Amino acid sequence: MPAAVPSDRLGRPLRDLRLSVTDRCNFRCPYCMPREVFGPHHSFLPRAEILTFEELQRLVRLFHRLGVRKVRLTGGEPLLRQDLPELVGMLAGLAGLDLALTTNGTLLARHAEALAAAGLGRVTVSLDSLDDEVFRRMNDVDFPVARVLDGIDAAAAAGLGPIKVNAVVRRGLNDRGLVDLASHFKGSGHVLRFIEYMDVGTSNRWRPDDLVPGEEIVRRVDAELPLEPIEPAYRGEVARRWRYRDGGGEVGVITSVSQPFCGDCTRARLSAKGELYTCLFAAAGTDLRAPLRSGADDTEIETLIRDVWTRRTDRYSELRSEESVGGKRVEMSYIGG
Ligand code: SAM
Ligand code: SF4
Ligand code: SF4
After folding, report:
1. Cα of 317 to ligand 3 centre, how many Å?
2. What residue segments make up the domains of the chain, in order of their start?
């Protein structure tokens, strides 16, 4: 029998789960894993600390019983986790589950077919600029744009399209290329989504001046490629959607900073070592690995998850402007966005 679906203290149901399958990444995007912090001496989680595929499968089954219908595999860079298609195959069978992956695209051409064959539904690829020099600087490992575009093509060819393409916008770094990105993906069938650069974690040293508000992003694209708004498709949709007036498809803007959407936030996040976070800006999570590894039964773990969710009051982005929160916060690369 399916368990009753819990709501949190603000009436938000548990619908989405982001699984970070590794804390490692082959990029050093300065807004996420700046090299000064994530350098050669940074210690990543040892393998034994990371949840196994069997543990992940068990947890996803319990989250599914509690109402989760969307699971997104993320990281770090999820395709660095060995045999990821095997995990996809282990999760894909759950009824009505929308299974997606967010990746930097570097290893996508190699794995797209296996991921699709294993039952992956959708892919989001992060790509911040089409200007090769800017992109190489933004990933800080000198990785070329062309290979990410190859990954997008391979994913589409494997049937994983339409692909969502995420571009984090940082003033003075890649904001000159907004229209180029939009023109490139207009009419491609893929959906570009601009993401406001967020003050997530503490290592990126975010400053308000770095932000290009969504309203300005839309104004700048609309001036060259006329847009009109579209209604959200479902509750909890984070992107504000726009379509090209000439029928060239749509573009999204994720305004987490300038127009927060905590009221509809139905997402839980699981770190690679099995901590449950109920907000991107939380300082700490709840350990699910210890009960998993010490023989707790399904009911006990389900009760723990339910208790965490029903106590949830998070709405960091709405409070940000009131400067009521500060101090230590989990890093994006640890819980995957
Ligand atoms: N490595 C994969 C990737 O880059 O797609 C998955 C993990 S990454 C943490 C997930 C998403 O978070 C990416 O689209 C990335 O651009 C976004 N992101 C990371 N740091 C961010 C920040 N400070 N503000 C907004 N988005 C951020
Ligand atoms: Fe890696 Fe993704 Fe973070 Fe860039 S945004 S450093 S690709 S985890
Ligand atoms: Fe959800 Fe926290 Fe982001 Fe608000 S700030 S939308 S509660 S993750």
Report:
1. 6
2. 16-335
Q: Whose CA is nearest to atom 3 of ligand 2?
A: 32
Q: Which residues contact 294 (CB under 8 A, 6 or more apart)?
A: none
Q: What are phi and psi of 111, to 5 degrees?
A: -110, -5
* CATH of the domain spanning 16-335: 3.20.20.70
pLDDT digits (tens, 9 = 90+) for 200-242: 888 888 999 999 999 999 999 999 999 999 987 776 677 899 9
Residue 229's closest CA among 239, 60, 158? Answer: 239
pLDDT at 324: 45
Q: Token pair for residue 103?
A: 């990746």
Which tens digit of pLDDT belongs to each residue from 181-204? 999 999 999 999 999 999 888 888
| Tokens, residue 236 | 């909890």
Residue to probe by mutation, ligand 1, list 102, 193, 212, 280, most atoms within 8 Å of CB:
102
